[in-house]
């Protein structure tokens, strides 16, 4: 019987299968396609350069023996490396057997302990060329679910995070996008999911990275000609957590590479968790195809915590720090610091520092001094509720009328102004503004903002409304 590429490879495979573990066989040999037999030279197609490097690193002896058995002393193996995605030239390049190994590069900023011989590695994450490498997840163990106080403002995001942590890649929350204003706990939840996954599934490779660092790594990989290694590195992760994706705005190269990494991970049932300061619908300068991926899973908003949750957050922090503080002071702080949990914690830390430096008691006077400083130092953010009240008063309406479905022109205008000021003076998303001002959708809010901008330029009377209300809102 004449030998063909398929028949030779089939025999090789049966030998290989007998000599390695089934999982390794499935991963590294099943995807290979025999494509040509020319004399004693067999050409096999491998899915990527990484794949080829892995074979060379780990299975070259086995391949050599298998081939020699089939094709004799002069056997040659030629790899046809099918480069992935758009990252290759159109011509697959061919590598002659035997060839030297190359070390793929771990992106900068990811901690990779190199002195591994002395370490006990339970689950080494192996990269060819670097003997045994464990990827550090970059997770902060203090940011866990236990230390994250639940409230109405974060219930959806928290429960979705828990669901993802229980079954990474196995829920419809993929990607899970957590969005919300500054200091509301996005990073905390993102870490908590990772920490919980590591706890439940120690074998999974979890990586937390900020978009900024991701972008920098990508730029470095382009400069250093290691773009493929960069992509492969990320494609091998089981749970990828990227913080502050709004930072990718306008960075088309990084968006493009992330799009391909995302697709690969998603197709392979890997979990992606993203955070952003905006809902996908409000993100600007992010490619449509990427935005549409963000919407595949679940987008969960973190809102500013209500008073009760703020009190609980403060109590929780005090408890963890082993500090006792009179209830009225905790309540005072919670009453005055409303829109940012980081600030809430900041006041507490200042209080504790001041009191211990000066050996003072916690007093309301001290609390007031510190709260005043915080409030002064941060640009005051008015609430959407307050904006509606001021706008309604100005037009002598009540808030219910402003929120109603009526299409009467002067009420529509008042409603549009309220939406406009909410967009300008708060960090709320269009969707969140719409839902708070008469249960409208984000498109209505966007339209309102444009209308107000246009009318301010063309209508003197309308311009005066805007100026008057601005004064009232900013005192
Ligand atoms: N529900 C909560 N329970 C306990 N701590 C919280 C909660 N929400 C936020 N925090 C704490 O508030 C601080 C700010 O949270 P975090 O850094 O996660 O906010 P963020 O939304 O990522 O902010 P940024 O927009 O600046 O990136 C952290 O110390 C975090 O632990």
TrEMBL record:
<dbReference type="GO" id="GO:0006275">
    <property type="term" value="P:regulation of DNA replication"/>
</dbReference>
<dbReference type="InterPro" id="IPR027417">
    <property type="entry name" value="P-loop_NTPase"/>
</dbReference>
<dbReference type="GO" id="GO:0005524">
    <property type="term" value="F:ATP binding"/>
</dbReference>
<feature type="binding site">
    <location>
        <position position="185"/>
    </location>
    <ligand>
        <name>ATP</name>
    </ligand>
</feature>
<keyword id="KW-0963">Cytoplasm</keyword>
<dbReference type="InterPro" id="IPR001957">
    <property type="entry name" value="Chromosome_initiator_DnaA"/>
</dbReference>
<dbReference type="GO" id="GO:0008289">
    <property type="term" value="F:lipid binding"/>
</dbReference>
<dbReference type="GO" id="GO:0006270">
    <property type="term" value="P:DNA replication initiation"/>
</dbReference>
<feature type="domain" description="Chromosomal replication initiator DnaA C-terminal">
    <location>
        <begin position="383"/>
        <end position="452"/>
    </location>
</feature>
<dbReference type="GO" id="GO:0003688">
    <property type="term" value="F:DNA replication origin binding"/>
</dbReference>
<feature type="binding site">
    <location>
        <position position="186"/>
    </location>
    <ligand>
        <name>ATP</name>
    </ligand>
</feature>
<dbReference type="InterPro" id="IPR038454">
    <property type="entry name" value="DnaA_N_sf"/>
</dbReference>
<feature type="region of interest" description="Domain IV, binds dsDNA">
    <location>
        <begin position="356"/>
        <end position="475"/>
    </location>
</feature>
<keyword id="KW-0547">Nucleotide-binding</keyword>
<comment type="function">
    <text>Plays an essential role in the initiation and regulation of chromosomal replication. ATP-DnaA binds to the origin of replication (oriC) to initiate formation of the DNA replication initiation complex once per cell cycle. Binds the DnaA box (a 9 base pair repeat at the origin) and separates the double-stranded (ds)DNA. Forms a right-handed helical filament on oriC DNA; dsDNA binds to the exterior of the filament while single-stranded (ss)DNA is stabiized in the filament's interior.</text>
</comment>
<dbReference type="GO" id="GO:0005737">
    <property type="term" value="C:cytoplasm"/>
</dbReference>
<feature type="binding site">
    <location>
        <position position="187"/>
    </location>
    <ligand>
        <name>ATP</name>
    </ligand>
</feature>
<dbReference type="Pfam" id="PF11638">
    <property type="entry name" value="DnaA_N"/>
</dbReference>
<keyword id="KW-0067">ATP-binding</keyword>
<feature type="binding site">
    <location>
        <position position="183"/>
    </location>
    <ligand>
        <name>ATP</name>
    </ligand>
</feature>
<keyword id="KW-0235">DNA replication</keyword>
<feature type="domain" description="AAA+ ATPase">
    <location>
        <begin position="172"/>
        <end position="308"/>
    </location>
</feature>
<dbReference type="InterPro" id="IPR013159">
    <property type="entry name" value="DnaA_C"/>
</dbReference>
<comment type="subunit">
    <text>Oligomerizes as a right-handed, spiral filament on DNA at oriC.</text>
</comment>
<comment type="similarity">
    <text>Belongs to the DnaA family.</text>
</comment>
<dbReference type="Pfam" id="PF08299">
    <property type="entry name" value="Bac_DnaA_C"/>
</dbReference>
<dbReference type="InterPro" id="IPR013317">
    <property type="entry name" value="DnaA_dom"/>
</dbReference>
<dbReference type="Pfam" id="PF00308">
    <property type="entry name" value="Bac_DnaA"/>
</dbReference>
<protein>
    <recommendedName>
        <fullName>Chromosomal replication initiator protein DnaA</fullName>
    </recommendedName>
</protein>
<dbReference type="InterPro" id="IPR003593">
    <property type="entry name" value="AAA+_ATPase"/>
</dbReference>
<dbReference type="InterPro" id="IPR010921">
    <property type="entry name" value="Trp_repressor/repl_initiator"/>
</dbReference>
<dbReference type="InterPro" id="IPR020591">
    <property type="entry name" value="Chromosome_initiator_DnaA-like"/>
</dbReference>
<keyword id="KW-0446">Lipid-binding</keyword>
<dbReference type="GO" id="GO:0005886">
    <property type="term" value="C:plasma membrane"/>
</dbReference>
<feature type="region of interest" description="Domain I, interacts with DnaA modulators">
    <location>
        <begin position="1"/>
        <end position="94"/>
    </location>
</feature>
<dbReference type="InterPro" id="IPR018312">
    <property type="entry name" value="Chromosome_initiator_DnaA_CS"/>
</dbReference>
<dbReference type="InterPro" id="IPR024633">
    <property type="entry name" value="DnaA_N_dom"/>
</dbReference>
<keyword id="KW-0238">DNA-binding</keyword>
